[in-house]
Write a structure and sequence with these properties.
Length: 272
């Protein structure tokens, strides 16, 4: 249990691209809550000091790249989901003063897959590009998918091995991104590639004919990866659905009530 937050923040570095303040502040206004959601762009060197101050203020909030794992290590308690993923994107201060961490990216990913495909399909062959906190959330979600198989590509072999060892999913490690996606029915970009520029995590020419694309990165006018995939006839979606849903689930953790999702989406669309 916890009281209403004394402060509401987003921790990350850099935060120039984030749409979270717009959607969360719209949800706060719709709910009649007078708090404001503040972005705190801070490097790792001052994260511990910042967390100590937020504890004193009985704060709650979100965490994004690159602080999700560090925040998990700083929390006094973690939900089962956060423990499994090993990363925190949502936190709050409990009545006893403990800092509690959760991971709503898992629920956000489920919602994004539903929006893209209608639902995940039996025996889905999933290519995951990346081996960070976002990839861990994706793998935790996929653990519940009947007969799913994963092909994972990371630039660091050891990191890929350590990640896959944590999840009960039939999986292989691909030598390169092209091999990871060649037989996939669902391709998930769980890297920041394409977030700031027009680079792509893999050429769309490498995709199987029936592959769908879910790019967890997002930009105001969509990523080039999504645009290129859609132009070649693939179902493709960026990370906005995941962003909104993980944010809505976080709002529920902070205030024990569901936010106005329409207000959140309207705020996002106003920026596109």
């Amino acid at each position: 249990m916890h009281d209403a937050p004394g402060r509401l923040v987003l921790l990350g570095h850099p935060l120039g691209h984030t749409l979270s303040p717009a959607m969360q502040n719209a949800a706060l206004v719709a709910a009649g809550i007078t708090l404001r959601y503040e972005p705190l762009d801070i490097p790792r060197s001052v994260l511990d000091e910042t967390i100590a101050g937020l504890r004193r203020q009985r704060a709650a909030g979100n965490v994004t790249t690159p602080h999700k794992v560090a925040l998990a290590n700083a929390c006094d308690r973690l939900t089962e989901t956060a423990k499994k993923v090993g990363a925190v994107n949502t936190f709050w201060t409990a009545i006893d003063g403990a800092l509690v961490g959760d991971n709503t990216d898992v629920g956000g990913f489920d919602a994004a897959v539903d929006a893209l495909l209608g639902s995940h399909r039996p025996r889905e062959r999933v290519a995951i590009l990346g081996a960070g906190g976002a990839a861990a959330a994706v793998l935790h979600a996929i653990e519940r998918w009947e007969g799913a198989e994963v092909s994972l590509y990371s630039r660091t072999q050891r990191r890929a091995e350590e990640l896959l060892d944590r999840f009960a999913v039939k999986s292989t490690i691909a030598r390169d991104a092209e091999r990871a996606v060649e037989e996939a029915t669902l391709v998930v970009n769980a890297t920041p590639v394409g977030l700031k520029d027009d680079t792509v995590p893999v050429s769309v020419h490498a995709l199987a004919k029936d592959a769908a694309v879910l790019d967890l990165a997002y930009r105001v006018n969509e990523t080039v990866f999504v645009k290129d995939a859609r132009a070649r006839g693939h179902r493709a979606q960026d990370g906005l659905t995941m962003l909104v849903e993980q944010g809505a689930l976080a709002f529920e953790r902070w205030f024990n009530t569901a936010p106005d999702r329409d207000a959140m989406w309207n705020a996002i669309r106003a920026l596109r």
